[in-house]
Structures are given as structure tokens and as C-alpha cells.
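fwd from M.: "can u put these together and see what the complex looks like"

so here's what she sent:
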Amino acid sequence: MIFRHGSLSRRDAFLLLIGASSMHIWTLIFNARGLDTDQSIVINTHVSQQDALGEFLTTTAVLKVTETKLETMTATVTELAAPTSTSRSLSPFDDLPPTDILAHAPGWTLFRNVYMSNGTMFIVADEASRKKIPEIRMMTSTGLEAVNTPENIALREPTPDNMRIISPEEAKERWVFTSKDANRPSFNRVWSVEGNTLLFNDPPQFLNHYYHFVAELFFGVQAFWHGAFSEPISTADALSPSSATHYSLRHPHAPPIHRAIFAHASADAWRDNPGFNSYFLRAALPSVVVENQVDWDDRIRATRPKTGEPQTDARAWHFSVVLLTDRSAAHRGAVCGSQTQRTAAEAWDFMRLRGKLRGLHVGGWWAPLREAVWRFAGAEEGLEAAIDMRQAKDPDKIVISYISRQSARSRKLIADDHKLLVESLEELVARKNKERADAQPEDVPLEYELTVVEAEKLTHDQQIRMAARTTIMLGVHGNGLTHLVFMKPNRASTVIELFFPGGFAHDYYWTSRALGMRHLAVWNDTHRAYPNKPDVNYPEGFQGDFIPVHGPTVVQLIEDRVAMKL
Ligand SMILES: *[C@@H]1O[C@H](CO)[C@@H](O)[C@H](O)[C@H]1NC(C)=O
Ligand SMILES: *[C@@H]1O[C@H](CO)[C@@H](O)[C@H](O)[C@H]1NC(C)=O
């Protein structure tokens, strides 16, 4: 961006580089050595980050001119080996292995060898390794429902009943039985939960909602899991915003996830009314076994000594590899808490800064789940993805999908404005297709298509197929826009979100940009877009049924966007 006109000298560029705005890349390069060092934790929570993806694009452009520094940096970056997920089952006579923290961002912690007894997570660490453990409040909480009152915020602070750090000696005292008879071996009372586990500490409050479940929880899971087990991209790629790596839909193989545990949610509580959460989970991760609160309670009860019986009857579960996710802890981080309000942003940004996410311009890191859902839904894109050139291409066709909320319970457009919007879009499509019909054979413009979608009238499969074909997704702020995570990325992919004038929320803005797509917020006859995004605001009328929109303005935005003027 800064360099488009080649107006800066190398020296200027270097000065820029050491300015505050390029902190990210320094973090990426100099912090790449240890995912589990103190430093990574401190930097992750304290670096000020304006807009993650924007910064990525500009700072990488700046770094392009510092080639002289490259050689030394490369050596540092390549030292970071991706952890493996090797699962280990303990035998009764094994020593209890200490806990490793493979990766951590606020609300997202990947453990190896962590223990649970009586509902408490136990991290086993000696004095030396304790220093490397993140603050417990950045990993977990009491898992209570969140409301924004000081009392509730205090009640969500974790207690020693939620998580504790104990020494290897204490672990042994608790769960290893040593016979008085010196000839008999000691044996542990620890049972391994083999394989790879997702442990969600979230309350049901946000689980039974398509956006929060898919575009937040599993979006973050995919970024963190995929990132943690990937080798970082090369320094040269990290420094070049136009590198094919940032357009790549190829991704290193990540270890399988075997189970998902919703510790605070009943079987119904993670399922949403339209049924998209379970549709997504079964389509994207068909092998994952789901446990809910009842199962977690079974596990808790199984570890508790019976009243009156000796404490030596206490048992513990040993989790080989577990990704613990906690919504309240994520909100204690800077990226989620003060910039995006998106828990997934902590996971995504952490991995992005370490060069661990492929295909930032096309959501390449998300592609495995997106493609799985496409295939499941019978979207042609699901099969095409496997044979594609795997690059962000020009679109074959401009497919506009207007997701209408006019038959929803609330948050609707003024009826006449909806009517004019549809008419304007129809006029656009007719005009463009006429231009196409009249065009000279050597310069045929793209075909246009419009679908006005009333999601509730379509099956799940139909909705996903609609999203997969969409170039421009348009609609009033709402859950229907969650389908943007299933759009097929190309250079024109855009989400146009209609707000009551003055209103703004980060949900679809952040999510679109995390997938490399353009997001335009429309306020009647004006629009706002990165880097000029509005602040979060819910003015009177935000949830109402009289949201104004000027159809011709939306049409102009679409034309400008397809012409790459926006
Ligand atoms: C188990 O946890 C419960 C609730 O947190 C607590 O009241 C009880 O004392 C604990 N039991 C043991 C044996 O630690
Ligand atoms: C929306 O924009 C149109 C076109 O500029 C204008 O005529 C109309 O008054 C605006 N509506 C509101 C509520 O501001």
C-alpha cells in the first residue's frame, strides 16, 4: 500500500519498520522461537493491534525492502518446530507426565498431559516450568453465563476449583498409590483419555447460536488447531503480501480431533433452532464424538472418593492432548476484549502473527472445514476444490445473494426500501446481462445473477449451496450472514452488511476479513469500510423494523467493487 508508488527510500522504510506500527512483524520474527515462553504470552496480550489483517498487509509490504535482514531472520523462524499431537496412554505403573502447554492465546490453550479430578483441571509443573504457565484467568473461568455487571464479571474469575497448578510430588501424593510392602510396585489411579480433545468451557448462552458456534467457536478452533500443528510459512513468504502462500488453499495435514466436550451444556444446549450447529459439526468433522455436561459430570463423579473412604480412592483423568476454550478468558485478551469482541480473533491473530495460517487472502486455513461442508451439502464447489488451481481467481460470474430478513421477527428494512433495493438489484442484473449480450466477442463482461434468499424456506443443503456460489452476500446485520464462512473466495468476494445508520458490530466485519474478503457496512446512502470502519454502536433503531437503505447506493457499491474501485 505504502509502496505502491515507490515513493519511499529503503532508509525511510526501515525507519517505518521500527515504528510502532510494525510491532506485529517483529513479534512474528523474534518471538517465533517459543510458543510456550513467557514472552509469547506477554506480547500476545499487550501489543496494541489496530486491525489485524490490514496491519498484516501493510507491515509485510514494509518488510519487503529489508532484505538485508532476511538471512538472519530465516534462521530464527525455522527453529520453530510444530508440535505433534502424539497421544499417550498411561499404564498403571507409569510416572505421571508433567503438563506441556503447546500453545496459548487468551481463551485458547492447547495442553499435553493435563489432568482432571473432581471437576478441577490440574496442571502438573515443577518450579522451573511454572514460570512459563500463563495466568490461569487467561485460560479459564467459572464458565458461568456472562452479563456485563461488575458482580458477574467477578463471578466468572476462576477459582482453585476450576484450575490449579500442582507439583509433580503433589500429583503423586494425590493419585499414585504406594504400597507399604516395598516389594509391590506403586501404581497410579489415573485413566487416560486418549487422542485429541476439544474442551469447551463455554456456557450454553452462546452455544445454541449458529454464528457463535460456527463462525466463532469452530472458526477459532480451526485457526488454533490448524495453526498449532503447522510449520510456519517461510520468512520470504511472510514478508511478501502477494506471495502465493497467502492465496493457498493447500494446508498441511493437522492431527484429527477425536472428541468435543461441552462441559457446561446439555445435549440440547449446543444445538440451535434452525439446526445448523449439528449440521455443521457432522458435516465438517464427521468422526468427532460429542460429550456434553451429563458425560462430563460422569467423569467428575468417577474421580470423587466416596464419602468416608480414604482420599487414596481419588482418581484422575489424564487428557493426552486437549484444546481448552473459554469465552470469558478470551474476552480478557486485548484482541477480543477491546478490539473485536470476537473470541476467535484471539486464536486467529495468535497464529497469524507466527506465520502459521496459510492462505490469509482466501481463508486457506479454514478451507478444510469449508470444503467438507460444501461436499456434504452437494455444492459443486466441494468437488471442484479438490481439482482446482487453488488460487484466488477472478469470479466466473457475479452472484449476488440478498439474504432478506423481511419475514424475520425483528431487525428489518423499511418495507418500501426493501422493495426499492430488490428492484435496483434486478435492474443492475438486467443491465449487466444486456451489456454482456451486446458486447464484442473479445470483451465479454461477466454474467450477473441475483437471488433473494429467505433462508427459512430453504433446506440446510440449499443454503450452503447458495453460499458456495455467492460472490456478493448482502443483508441486514444478522445470523443469516454467518453463511459467509461458506462463500467460495475469489477476488471480488464481498459482504455488504446493512445497519441502522450509525450502528455497527464486529461480528461479520471481522469474520469476512479473517477470510480475506471485503466487508462494506452500509448506512442508508453511505458506506464505511476498512480502514475507516466505525466503532461498535447499537443506536436506537438497530433492532427495529424500520432500517433505511437506499437501493441505488447498494447497486453503485456492487459495481464499484466488481470494478475493483473499492
Ligand atoms: C469436590 O468438588 C466439590 C465441588 O467443587 C467440593 O465441594 C468437594 O469438597 C470436592 N471434593 C474433594 C474430595 O476434593
Ligand atoms: C436515505 O437516503 C436517501 C437517498 O439519499 C434519502 O432520500 C433518504 O431520506 C434517506 N433516509 C434516511 C432515513 O435518512
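replying to her w this: Confidence is low (pLDDT under 50) at residues 1-80.
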